[in-house]
Amino acid sequence: MESSSPQDVVGPIDAVEPVAAADAPSDPAPVRAVQVLSSAVRIEELSIEPQVIVNYLKTIAPEKQEIALIHALEVGVTEMIARRERFKH
Predict the structure, then answer these.
(1) What is the rounded distance in angstroms from the CA atom of residue 86 to the CA atom of residue 89?
(2) How confident is the model over 16-30, as pLDDT tens digits?
(3) Phi and psi of 35, rounded to 5°?
(4) What is the rounded distance in angstroms from the CA atom of residue 41 to the CA atom of residue 35?
(5) Treating both helix axes as pointing N-terminal to C-terminal, what angle do 51-58 and 65-88 enclose, rounded to 10 degrees?
(6) HSE of 76 in the Cβ direction (CA atoms, 13 Å)?
(7) For the chain, what is the radius of gyration of the CA atoms?
(8) 46 CB contacts (<8 Å, ≥6 apart)?
């Protein structure tokens, strides 16, 4: 992975674990490929198969693919938020 800006660096994985409520059951939640935590999203063993995404990432140098995927998510989420706002009115 290439050098990241401070906002891209989360730190050790265990630093972003969800905190269980005091009255929550002790059974662990099922492990999911995408976990939305309080300050980060963790993705493990996720297969992304739409060919347009695969083809795009193939054009990026391997050491830059992770940050390219993060940037693509940022752009996509920003666009989705803007679309929702446009259709609210």
Answers:
(1) 6
(2) 455 555 555 667 777
(3) -120, 120
(4) 6
(5) 140
(6) 7
(7) 17
(8) 33, 34
44 or 10, greater pLDDT: 44
Which residue bears the tokens 């929702």?
84
Write out the chain in H/E/C secondary structure.
CCCCCHHHCCCCHHHHCCCCCCCCCCCCCCCCCEEECCCCEEECCCCCCCHHHHHHHHCCCHHHHHHHHHHHHHHHHHHHHHHHHHHHC
Residue closest to 1 by CA, chosen among 84, 69, 54: 69
The string of pLDDT tens digits covering residues 13-67 is 444 455 555 555 667 777 889 999 999 999 999 999 999 999 999 999 999 999 9
Rounded to 5 degrees, φ, ψ at 36 are -95, 110
Rounded-to-integer distance, Cα 81 and Cα 87, Å: 10
